[in-house]
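Chapter review: from sequence to fold.
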Amino acid sequence: MKKRIFSLLLCLMMLFAFSASAQEVRPNVTDLMFTYTDLDLNPYKGKTVLLNFFTEWCYYCMKEMPDLKAVHDLYDEDKFEVVLVHVWDGEDETNTHNVKEKYGMQDMVFFEDTDRMVASVAGLRGYPATIIAEPDGTLAFAVNSMVTLDVLTEVLDGMGVPRAQEAADESV
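The token string follows.
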């Protein structure tokens, strides 16, 4: 019993140590993806980028799709981009088509992770997962579970990402 408690404490200490060091040195998501995968995020430099990893068979992935569409529509397209990474975990382009049609996402950016390399570089441990990168490409937020519109808006508003209505008001 003592060995189990010690092991648990050791794991928790390592987790907190990693979390502290991860906050000090934030990886550049844009560079990682460009260097190790076919996902080119260079067209979005200067924008806050939300990467969402999904599969169609994943219940929670599909449950969060309406929130991802809502956040896409809510924020200024000149300052924010959503990139949906379809991980081909037993799937193909037909599944992407199904998601686009079902959730009205034809105007959104999709990337086909046919060899699961992007998911691997991101350190995915399951689906769904969401990463938000600052305009300079550094990591701002990451979660390997379902995320809600409330959480996304709290994070993006906290980062100062302008909403679409704010951008329209400023241009008047």
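Two observations follow directly from the output. The domain at 27-171 is CATH 3.40.30.10 (Glutaredoxin). Confidence is low (pLDDT under 50) at residues 1-23.
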